[in-house]
Amino acid sequence: MASLTPVSQSQSLLEKPQFKSPALQASFPPVSLRSPSFRFRVLRKLGSVPSRRGGALEMAPNSVVVSATIAEKPKKRYPGEAKGFVEEMRFVAMKLHTRDQAKEGEKEPQGQPVAKWEPSVDGYLRFLVDSKLVYDTLEGIVQKAAFDSYAEFRNTGLERSEKLAKDLEWFKEQGYTIPEPSTPGVTYAHYLEELSEKDPQAFICHFYNIYFAHSAGGRMIGKKVAEKVLDNKALEFYKWDGDLSQLLQNVREKLNKVAEGWTREEKNHCLEETEKSFKYSGDILRLILS
Question: Which end of the chain is least crowded, N or C, by CB within 10 Å?
Fold first, then answer.
């Protein structure tokens, strides 16, 4: 056990006559505890001061470990981060669903569930027309590519404009009048155009949510509406050329790759845009009931 005797008292003990026998002096050569060289040797033994080797100072290993331990702070982990940024976006999006839409949902239900909807063909047409305007806008933005990263998302196989054009042509052949785009679609398309020119992280949030939501909940809604007003006709809007799961995985990998070049702040900014994406898309979706 280390002595608690102060250094000054230890010094005086060694200087007392009874401790000055020749044998004792031979075993313990005279040394001043106040000597700088003595203090340096003690501290060096404890690993608290740098040692000199080959003319250069080297920090003692123990002192380096202590410094690193003090300096490092636990890195905050975001939900889904370990699997890639797309999983982070998915996690945030799921929380904006209601519990009947997704098990992770936290939003209170607003209005009737889809199963109880009473859609009309006219309302469905308004929804399809406004949706086409939004997809036209998205596809135009990635073709123009104001930011290089947008070019990654050309010809992904998820594009919907051409499919929607075929569906609207079918409705026209059935004698329906195709309406002009309405306020929800025009507003969202304009917002996407402006956003894409100045805020790539926010734009990517909308890109992800529009395409991935349509491939999941969008298909379910399309099926329910078709059952009620189209005699179960399957529209082209809900068909993809190739394996949809593989198309989604390809885009998922591209999104993760793009996000690897973002700072944590930019990623958070992207995630914060999710609620706006849901609002604009929800306004268009509600046209089905108009």
Answer: N
pLDDT (0 to 100) of residue 42: 42
Q: How far is CA 95 from the centre of its chain?
A: 14
In the DSSP assignment, the letter for residue 240 is -
Amino acid identity at 194? E
Taking only the tens place, the pLDDT of each residue in 108-118 is: 777 788 878 99
Other beta carbons within 10 angstroms of residue 78's beta carbon come to 15
75 phi/psi in degrees, rounded to 5? -80, 130
**Which H or E run includes 190?**
helix 183-198
Average pLDDT of the chain is 82
Instruction: Give CA–CA dist 279/283, Å, rounded.
Output: 6
The amino acid at 119: P
User: Going by C-beta distance under 8 Å and a sequence separation of 6 or more, which residues neighbour residue 137?
Assistant: 189, 192, 193
| pTM as predicted | 0.74
The sign one gets for the Cα dihedral 185, 187, 190, 191 is negative
C-alpha 144 chain-centroid distance: 25
pLDDT at 104: 66
**Residue 241 to residues 128, 130, 248, Cα–Cα distance (Å):** 20, 23, 12
- Which residues, 6+ apart, have CB-to-CB distance to 255 below 8 Å? 85, 86, 89, 204, 208
Of 47 and 124, the structure prediction assigns the larger pLDDT to 124
Confidence label for 91 from pLDDT (cuts 50, 70 and 90): very high
Distinct helix (H) and strand (E) counts, the chain: 13, 2
Structure token digits, residue 149? 């990263």
What DSSP character marks residue 52? E
pLDDT digits over 109-163, tens only? 777 888 789 999 999 999 999 999 999 999 999 999 999 999 999 999 999 999 9
